[in-house]
Amino acid sequence: MVTLEEIRAAQARIDGLVRVTPMRLSPALSAVAGGPVWLKCEHMQETGAFKLRGATNAAARLGKVAGVTTASTGNHGRALAHAARQLGLPAVICVSRLVPANKIAAIEALGAEARVTGASQDEAFKEARRLEREEGFALIPPFDHRDVIAGQGTLGLEILAQLPDAAAIAIPLSGGGLLAGVAAAAKAVNPRIRIIGISMERGAAMAASLAAGHPVEVEELETLADSLGGGIGLENRLTYAMCRDLMDELILVSEAEIARGIRFLGREEGETVEGAAAVGAAAVLADKLRAAPEPLVLLLSGRNIDPAQHRRILEGET
Ligand SMILES: *Cc1c(COP(=O)(O)O)cnc(C)c1O
């Protein structure tokens, strides 16, 4: 398990390189839930997602390397590109053909090479492994890595510093680096805090793995929560066990519920978020979080949604 000491060290290491993001009460969601619901506005992080924390912490710990590389559905690649530039390192980001064009453009705008390869996250990962093996790059994976988890864990410390009486945190869940880090930090500070993971119904690899009792592969499907797609790795070393041991509850939300979450946060709260970040609001609106103790914190994990898609969803009726 990643420890509180590692997370505190990460916090000191990335201080000044990442933003402290706001935490605010959501009047509209509190009214729906019947008790206080807070928004941790990490979608306002530089590069538009929390992944900058883990990528910066991991890259800052490297010795001499040719550069950094990773495979990413977008936000981690973008984060690593930004971290590498801040630290003066070359970066090659390997992405699958499923990754939206706006995310590839964002990586290139950050001065990194975006290498489009394969039809899945796993295939893109093979190219990153080759760069590591043959060209002296350091491979920084998106979630299953101690320094990445510790970096994401700084969000747990930040949430409890901003709202010390938080009773539950609802966390978007894919590979589990975010949940593992936040849960490790939050439970070390307050062992009674409830950690709730939320994934989409379509292709939730961690949910399928926990149900099977070991990491399994799932078919990668298109979803509004595209940042939650991809497997957890059959050789998963850290996040599977940490999520199994630290997560109190796992909730799944449908595509229609995610769309409703995006729309509600946009219309009622003025927050532009991507699908992955809307799963908490989706769960509140679908009455799937009624058992959660309050104050409840929803972690808004990112804002990198195609603007045309966001507009269409905002204009939708359901
Ligand atoms: C990566 C990501 C997640 C999920 O994080 P994991 O560590 O893979 O569980 C959630 N939301 C956004 C916006 C992301 O980019």
Give a concise summary.
With 318 residues, the protein is an alpha/beta fold.
Keywords:
Rossmann fold, 10 strands, 45% helix, 15% strand, 4-stranded parallel sheet, 318 residues, alpha/beta
Summarize the structure in words.
The mean pLDDT is 95. The chain has 13 helices and ten strands. 57% of the residues are buried. The strands form two sheets. A six-stranded mixed beta sheet has the order 1-2-10-7-8-9. It is α/β, with parallel strands linked by helices and 318 residues long. It has helices spanning 4-14, 27-33, 51-60, 75-87, 101-109, 121-135, 146-162, 177-189, 205-212, 239-246, 255-269, 279-285, 307-315; strands spanning 23-25, 37-41, 67-71, 91-95, 113-116, 137-139, 168-172, 194-200, 249-253, 296-300. It starts with a helix and ends with a helix. It has two domains: 4-49 and 145-314, Rossmann fold; 51-139, Rossmann fold (3-Layer(aba) Sandwich), CATH 3.40.50.1100. Helix 3 (51-60) packs across helix 7 (146-162) and helix 8 (177-189) crosses helix 10. Pyridoxal-5'-phosphate binds at residues 49, 51, 75, 143, 172-179, 227-228, 274, 276-277, 301-302.
